[in-house]
Amino acid sequence: MSATIAAVVRDALLSNSSVVSLVGTTPLNARIFVSYRDVTGYPCIVLEYNDNSDVSPAIDRTDRLRRLSVDIDCIATTAKASLALAEAVRKGIHGAAGTSRSTTVMEIRVARENTTYDSGAEGDEAGYHVTSVGVDAYYRSDAVTPSTIYQGGLPPAP
Predict the structure, then answer these.
(1) Beta strand 44-54 pairing with 128-140
(2) Which tens digit of pLDDT belongs to each residue from 135-158?
(3) Which residues, other chains included, contact 152 with Cβ-Cβ below 8 Å and sequence gap of 6+?
(4) How many domains does the chain contain in total?
(5) How confident is the model over 23-71, as pLDDT tens digits?
(6) Is 155 within a domain?
(7) Residue 157 domain-assigned (yes or no)
(8) pTM of this prediction?
(9) In what side-by-side order are the strands of the sheet with 44-54?
(10) If DSSP codes are grouped into helix, strand and coil, which group holds residue 88?
(11) Strand partners of residue 48
């Protein structure tokens, strides 16, 4: 996975004042984490990066079009706060496009949503609500990843 495109999705969230106001007071102290949740406060966002794949229609993929799927977990102590944060994320990120960190993002598109309640793993840990907003970020990669096609059961030709 490209660390640059992952950072671009985080940058898109940090550039939205509605999102930042719910998870901190400034982009520098916003509670937006990658892969795991810090327990310093709620509400917060945890980004989970999933599939990063070619979506080009041509075998040679000369257009270098790729898609990164990201789950944006909006975590809060109440369902109302979790849903409010998810709504700010949806409004702020759907349709975002442009160039960031030398990467051209054609579009970030909201693709799915899911709401759950986590009762906590320990007896003394309070439960929390999680509303996951799944997005697909379409971007152009720096280089073409070539495809190799070969006959099944035989090693590829050198």
Answers:
(1) unpaired
(2) 999 987 765 555 555 556 666 555
(3) none
(4) 1
(5) 988 888 889 988 877 767 889 999 998 888 878 666 655 667 888 899 9
(6) no
(7) no
(8) 0.80
(9) 32-34, 44-54, 65-76, 128-140, 103-118, 96-100
(10) helix
(11) 71
